Amino acid sequence: MKALCYHGKGDIRYEDFEDPKLASDTDVIVKMDQCAICGSDLHIYHGEGFSPDMGFCVGHEAVGTVEEVGRAVRRFDVGDPVMISAAVGCGSCPACLAGEIVKCHVQGFACYGLGSALQGCQAEGIRVPMGDFNLRKIPEGISTEQALMLTDNLPTAHVGCQRADVTPGSDVAVVGLGPIGLMAVEIVSVMGAGRVFALDLVPERRAIAENLGAIPVDPATATETISEATQGRMLGSVVECVGADASLQLSIQLAGVRGTVSSIGVNSNMQFPFPMALALAKGLTFRMALCSVQSHWEELIPLVRTGRLRPEQFVSHRMSLSDGAEAYRLFDAKEDGSMKMVMSD
Fold it and tell me: What is the residue range of 159's domain?
């Protein structure tokens, strides 16, 4: 088969790759119909990878069609359209059964495409371990692209908003307006936020957020703008969707007394200069989270089906898997209005 593989900083190649095979009776082989690039994939693209491996298949967002099932698989048949959870659990330990897939007692947090241990989803075929737990049939009334957003981006935005202590009528900021940030703008509005301040360095992304009903704010003037808008009280909730040191520092500045900063951006800086004195003075709650994707589906699917959430609107490019290297380049450079990059076989 063909797949997108990592060969070093800025080097993603479309090339021949070994076909996936059943490694266990609980595995499912899925033929990829659509896959997408996540913002966290750019950390690998930038050479900040989570593994020293080279030549592995990347990506963790995909939907497809069941092509082969192991003998112990009970919930799926060949031909079923499915969405693949980016979070991979064993499905039988107490943590997985409680919906805390990131705390899986058997393997800890696992995700596709971080190295050779579990090959990625930006490929013509995908091996899904514990298929009965890590797959779901695409629900009736959910389009293929909506299902693709449910494999990671929308649940990740959701967990960030859930952990931000948003209350009805409250003032909230979303920092970073990539696809996940824009989905967060929609989610906090559904949760009843009063004013939503939307921050990003890219003016075009701020304009998209404004069309969603948010107040666009340039990060360079955000502290002054939000202080004036709140008479100095600042914000009760900040959802940080970038993970860069600067955006984390800004988010902490924007939070008010007893405020909450909920970060879902990826930050690998082990020496991050957390402002302890400021956090103490504010009584700040600071949370970071990876997403147990499957546990969010029951709440999110009805919101997508009824049009309350429209994650598919943030798809900017539909390309061939063979153009994957260019898709990564465009997304990384934020060129051509790039937002959500979707690829198909």
Answer: 155-288
